[in-house]
Amino acid sequence: MNWILENLGLIGSLSLEHLRQSVIAIVLGFAASIPLGWVAWKYKLLRGPVVSLTGLLYTIPSLALLMILPVLTGMSAISEANLILALAIYAVAIMVRSVVDGLNSVDPATRSAATAMGYGTARRFFAVDLPLAGPVVLAGLRVTAVSTISLATVGILVGVTNLGYLFTNGLQRRIIEEVLAGIIAVAAIALLVDLLLLLAGRWLMPWTTASTLKRRTPAPKSTEQAAS
Amino acid sequence: MNLISDALSWIFAAEQWQGDGGLAALLGQHLLFTVLAVLIAGVIAIPAGWAIGHTGKGREIAVGIAGIARAVPSFGLLILLVLLLGVLHKPEAALLTFVVLAIPSLLAGAYTGFEAIDRKTIDAARAVGMTEWQILFKVEIPLGLALLVGGIRSAVLQVVATVTVAAYVNLGGLGLPIITGLNLRRFDMVLGGALMVAALALVLDLAFAMAQKAAVPRGLGARTKKKFHYTDDQITLEREMS
């Protein structure tokens, strides 16, 4: 416990760094997934290729992606921007499918009603489609957030400082508490962000009531929009 | 693009593949760790997942474990276990990390496979007089197989990615050229290693995608079949969403 108490300042500042890097990546990935998911949902011909290509990105191990990206972008492999880009790519890999699934879960009758009331394409997307796709998109966003925060620690292997520093430094100095503090800090940040997203979802989408939450039997994919 | 051709010539140089630290040996280590970890995790998680799927009990616990497991950074867990078990037991520490990593996907693959089965099918099996064990082996396991293979696919890919990171504690594997190359500033080596790992992951993913298709029983109609074609992150989402 001594090491942790003496280094609370270090843990705190690394946690902030870690949170900042992860949040930028999550926001970037989310922002890119909405139009990508929309295009894949709107044009059936593109759906297969977009969903499977983005999904394929997820299979590339992080350490490999961190080394391959600089060749394509011209950035330095050891730069923070490279880590954030890699994390954002993984976020897109998970999120695009949830956006497509979410848009699929919107009742076509609701969409027709909006059209009948005179909603244009853009207004209908932001005022009807996107909010109704919300619960499924949020479920994807929560998975993305947790895995991004946990994955970011690999950044230390290419020299980007965040909570991963406690792992490599702890190994070199053989301080078990330091490594343990790092794991706990990462998991705590991940679970905290997850909780915040859940609460934000309840606040922004109050219509996600108990009845949709309780749907436990695996119904066909399109109706399964329960986000716990 | 010069870097790419440098990396490719590094990979295809004959001397790279020979000897103790050669690419052939590293690839073997990488696959050995992956196979062992997924096998051990499977022996633990698959029967447990089947029990959850068959009885419908303990699901919340499994979902909770999976949620926490995703939040724990596997790189940190690896280093913690290396320190706890001591440097002499490094391979065991690494194997334990990979097993812990593989368990949630396998568990989810096993029980979501059972849950995706139409309840009517199971009721019908019971009605024709099948015992619980017969239902398990003749109905639930064959029908749930495709989703289980999906879970194995996701576990294998996660372990392959993490074995790469394990090179940091001198465990070999295909991450080794990346880590060594970074220290030596030999970017042909770094990129060569990275391309090898990415290729390995893509080949394994493709092989499991085909296995998943093959695991759908012949009798299933086209409409129900669709439900069984899940991929790895769909299982993750499924787990989170329900």
UniProtKB/TrEMBL annotation, chain A:
Q: How does it sit in the membrane?
A: Multi-pass membrane protein
One Pfam family of this chain:
BPD_transp_1
Name its cellular compartments: Cell membrane; Membrane
Q: Which InterPro entries match?
A: ABC_transp_perm/SBD (IPR051204), MetI-like (IPR000515), MetI-like_sf (IPR035906)
Q: Which UniProt keywords apply?
A: Membrane, Transmembrane, Transmembrane helix, Transport
Question: Which Gene3D superfamilies does the UniProt entry name for this protein?
Answer: MetI-like
Q: Identify the residues that the record assigns to the ABC transmembrane type-1 domain, covering every copy.
A: 15-197
Q: Which domain of life is it from?
A: Bacteria
Q: What residue ranges are annotated as transmembrane?
A: 23-41, 53-78, 84-104, 149-167, 179-205
> What SUPFAM superfamilies would the database entry show?
MetI-like (SSF161098)
Query: Record keywords: RNA-binding included?
Result: no
Assigned protein family: Belongs to the binding-protein-dependent transport system permease family.
Provide the protein name. ABC transporter permease
Provide the species name. Glutamicibacter nicotianae (Arthrobacter nicotianae)
From TrEMBL, chain B:
Matching PROSITE patterns: ABC_TM1
Q: Where do the TM regions start and end?
A: 31-53, 65-87, 93-114, 135-153, 159-182, 189-211
What InterPro entries has UniProt attached to this entry? Answer: ABC_transp_perm/SBD, MetI-like, MetI-like_sf
Which Pfam family, giving just one, matches this sequence?
BPD_transp_1
Does the keyword Translocase feature in the UniProt annotation?
A: no
What are the alphabetically sorted keywords of the record?
Membrane, Transmembrane, Transmembrane helix, Transport
Q: Is-annotated flag, keyword Oxidoreductase? A: no
Query: Where does it live in the cell?
Result: Cell membrane; Membrane
* Domain of life of the source: Bacteria
In the bilayer, the protein is annotated as: Multi-pass membrane protein
Q: Where is the ABC transmembrane type-1 domain?
A: 27-208
Entry's family note: Belongs to the binding-protein-dependent transport system permease family.
Q: What is this protein called?
A: ABC transporter permease
Question: Could you tell me which species this protein originates from?
Answer: Glutamicibacter nicotianae
In the record, what lineage is assigned to the organism producing the protein?
A: Bacteria, Bacillati, Actinomycetota, Actinomycetes, Micrococcales
